[in-house]
Specification:
- By secondary structure, the chain is of the alpha/beta class.
- The protein is built from 8 helices and 6 strands.
- The strands form 2 sheets. A 4-stranded parallel β-sheet has the order 2-1-3-4, with helices on both faces. A two-stranded parallel sheet has the order 5-6.
- Helix 2 runs parallel beside helix 3, helix 6 packs across helix 7 and helix 7 packs parallel to helix 8.
- The chain is elongated, with a radius of gyration of 18 Å.
- The two termini are about 25 Å apart.
Length: about 180
């Protein structure tokens, strides 16, 4: 996890934080980066949405109330959780990873919201990933667990897909599972 490539858009959004009606957090890393770049937490006046329990816990650790959390921890369920809220004309801040699906901002915009998507952090492959993957595979794991689509992409880039022959794959959720399936 790395800081945003350009922190200025996040800083600009945080400077006007009190003008947002909603802030939507889609990861613990987004919460951490948000707080790291924020000068005064008291500027947060809008409602808060968390994608899942870990993100909710990170927000609540800051003594901030979470107003919405979906039953399933994917973007589509987050949108369902916000279905009863009239977001037309509302300003929504979405601090998130540099690479993320655009399901949430696209649908909220379609519903009439004014959505500011800002890069709060980046995920990068660790140094010497190829050597680390080779070493891990040399121990003949029974299972490999992927925690995001980017971990799937990075792993496959570091090791040939056929290096996973005979290894069972576990994934954090349906989107990551879909990415793994794309690689067979």
């Amino acid at each position: 996890i790395r800081p945003p490539a350009d922190p200025e858009p996040l800083k600009r959004a945080l400077a006007q934080l009190c003008s947002y009606d909603w802030v939507i957090f889609t990861s613990v890393n987004g919460v951490r980066s948000f707080v790291d770049h924020l000068d005064d937490l008291r500027m947060l006046r809008g409602k808060v949405c968390a994608i899942g329990p870990a993100t909710r816990a990170a927000i609540e650790a800051l003594h901030i109330k979470v107003d919405r959390m979906p039953e399933e921890y994917v973007a589509e369920s987050l949108l369902e959780a916000l279905q009863k809220d009239d977001v037309a004309g509302k300003r929504i801040l979405l601090p998130r990873a540099a690479v993320a699906r655009d399901v949430v901002p696209a649908e909220l915009t379609r519903r009439g919201a004014i959505v500011d998507v800002v890069e709060a952090y980046r995920t990068c492959a660790p140094e010497n990933l190829g050597a680390k993957v080779t070493e891990a595979l040399s121990r003949k794991p029974h299972w490999i667990t992927f925690t995001s689509s980017s971990t799937v992409h990075n792993f496959v880039a570091a090791a040939a897909r056929d290096a996973l022959a005979g290894v069972k794959i576990a994934s954090i959720g349906p989107i990551t599972s879909g990415t793994a399936r794309e690689y067979g």
